[in-house]
Specification:
about 550 residues, alpha/beta, 9-stranded mixed beta sheet, about 15% strand, globular, binds ligand NA7
Length: about 550
């Protein structure tokens, strides 16, 4: 279908390109969404803030960045050719390779011609009379389409704490999620890292070997577990290529879309020795097996969780030579898994190095950033480089940072002020034809992102086949879904910690479960049922 240039009746000046659908974001979800909508015969334009494809894998270039999913489960499953052509180098693939992979996909499926890079969407306004969304980029360029799909990711709106004096620092400041393309040279430098989440845990052991001196400012220690990465042998590569259908089938059946599944026994009903033997076995395995292959009640029963948490604490203590430092690194104020478990390689050993210092900022809080470095309640530390590994305004942030206006000009940001308000995670009442293509389930990202994109694509196809022109959830269906999602959150121990899962990592952000805490198969089934029943809970016009 051809696109055309017209003048916008609403906005006045400047040509406005017309499309059937606009996709915001060219990351894992956006690339696939573009591919699928194009397959439907739609004229699609994808706008991407970055200078290349990849989303998370474009922006997060810090040393050590990688995914914690098994590589054979993270790649797209929708093209047999792609599966056979691509060789994963590591069992848990690193950022450079992941970015290469997504570039390969973009070229392989000729996606680039429909992507406009360096294009940050500033606003999206629904024109009710015309049933068109009009987006405006920061450059002032505008475009209109019937369907708007936000594939903006759940961890893309970076968060930098508003430390007093932050701009006064005379050295170099980095945020891990906006890492420069050129290699940062830390040789001989005095470097600070603020934060000890999954990102910092990947970064610290690598730069510790390069820097002159590294100071880590930790607010909350995490339960970090060994990743146990390795190179992929040609035997493993061939085995994957021969069994991808089985691998994907398995991922579609397990609760979090990994190869791992929980042990069905109740933790405390298993004799202690047997429990410990399982913990040791899990600990020796790569990836998230220690979390997602553990007893099924690990995330719902506090006592069961504590049993494993203590096992992990002792593993940490055993790796850190100085017992005072070790104790600082041991988490005690939240259950295992209530914050995202960072997977690590030689993280704890970094603290055994003479050039690495751990500062517990619960004991001595950061008061301000100074021209020379960081001033805590105790003293001023001087640095050449400060690295903010302080995370993201997760799930809602990337959406609410765009000024999205629905029917009657209502503001999306206002609507979501107290947390996500969706039906099925994919649409919100009063914003017709606006789809949210992010994976907001607790789930191996690509696996669930594919399901979301497939559902949205099928929905748009259905509308077109049945001659409907718009779709939005009923307020009642949305209210019921929000209540259901919030309730699910309370069944687990996730609400027992401050984390991006709960939005509580951002001061002032309303505490609410941001991810859908059901199993991936249950979520997929519910979405499929809604579609089969003629999009029950939606208004189709
Ligand atoms: P996280 O997991 O949100 O970690 C951010 C870290 O920054 C964490 O240690 C925070 O401490 C710390 N932080 C945040 N604000 C401050 C302030 N004001 N002062 C000191 N320290 C602070 O982000 P990541 O980038 O590591 O990982 C995000 C996800 O990306 C990860 O889960 C993976 O899925 C990929 P806190 O724990 O809040 O006390």
């Amino acid at each position: 279908m051809a696109t055309s240039l017209e003048r916008s009746p609403a906005a006045g000046t400047g040509p406005v390109e017309q499309f059937d659908a606009i996709v915001i974001g060219a990351g894992v979800s956006g690339l696939y969404q573009l591919y699928r909508l194009r397959q439907l015969g739609l004229a699609v334009r994808c706008y991407e803030d970055g200078g290349g494809v990849g989303g998370t894998w474009y922006w997060n270039r810090y040393p050590g960045c990688r995914f914690d999913s098994e590589s054979e489960t993270y790649g797209y499953s929708w093209s047999e050719e792609l599966l056979q052509e691509w060789d994963w180098k590591e069992h848990f693939s690193g950022q450079p390779e992941n970015e290469k992979y997504l570039n390969y996909v973009a070229d392989r499926f000729d996606l680039r011609k429909d992507i406009q890079f360096n294009s940050r969407v500033k606003s999206a306004v629904y024109d009710e009379r015309a049933n068109r969304w009009e987006i405006e980029l920061e450059s002032g360029q505008r475009a209109r389409a019937q369907f708007l799909v936000a594939a903006v990711g759940i961890l893309s709106a970076r968060y930098t704490p508003p430390f007093e004096g932050i701009d006064s620092f005379k050295g170099i400041s980095y945020h891990t999620s906006r890492w420069p393309k050129e290699k940062a040279d830390f040789t001989g430098k005095r470097v600070a890292v603020i934060g000890t989440g999954a990102t910092a845990v990947q970064l610290i052991p690598i730069i510790a070997k390069e820097v002159g001196h590294l100071t880590v400012f930790q607010r909350t220690p995490n339960y970090c577990a060994p990743l146990r990465n390795g190179l992929v042998s040609s035997e493993a590569q061939n085995r994957w290529k021969a069994t991808y259908p089985e691998i994907h089938k398995r991922c579609r059946e397990t609760p979090a879309a990994f190869m791992h599944d929980f042990d069905p026994r109740n933790t405390l009903e298993v004799p202690k020795e047997e429990r410990l033997a399982l913990y040791e076995e899990l600990w020796a395995q790569p990836g998230f097996k220690k979390w997602l292959g553990n007893f099924h009640d690990i995330m719902t029963n506090r006592e069961a969780n504590e049993d494993f948490a203590e096992f992990v604490r002792n593993k940490i203590r055993a790796r850190v030579k100085d017992p005072v430092v070790a104790e600082k690194l041991v988490p005690k104020d939240h259950p295992f898994g209530s914050k995202r478990i960072p997977l690590e390689t030689e993280y704890y050993e970094a603290y055994n190095r003479d050039n690495v210092l751990l500062v517990d900022i619960k004991e001595t809080p950061i008061e301000r950033i100074t021209p020379k470095g960081i001033k805590t309640s105790d003293k001023e530390y001087e640095f050449d480089v400060i690295i903010y590994a302080t995370g993201f305004d997760a799930v809602t942030g990337a959406l609410t940072r765009i000024d999205i206006r629905g029917e009657d000009g209502q503001s999306f940001k206002d609507k979501w002020a107290n947390g996500p308000r969706t039906y099925l995670g994919m649409q919100t009442a009063g914003f017709p034809n606006f789809f949210i293509a992010i994976n907001s389930a607790f789930c191996n990202y690509t696996v669930c992102a594919e399901s979301v994109v497939d559902w949205i694509t099928d929905c748009i196809r259905y509308l077109r086949e049945k001659n409907f022109t718009r779709i939005a959830p009923t307020p009642e269906a949305e209210e019921a879904w929000v209540e259901h999602a919030n309730q699910l959150g309370t069944y687990t121990l996730l609400s027992d910690a401050n984390s991006w899962f709960m939005g509580s990592n951002i001061p002032g952000k309303k505490r609410a479960i941001l991810l859908y805490a059901n199993t991936a198969p249950a979520y997929r089934q519910k979405c499929a049922e809604v579609a089969t029943q003629g999009y029950e809970g939606f208004i189709l016009q």
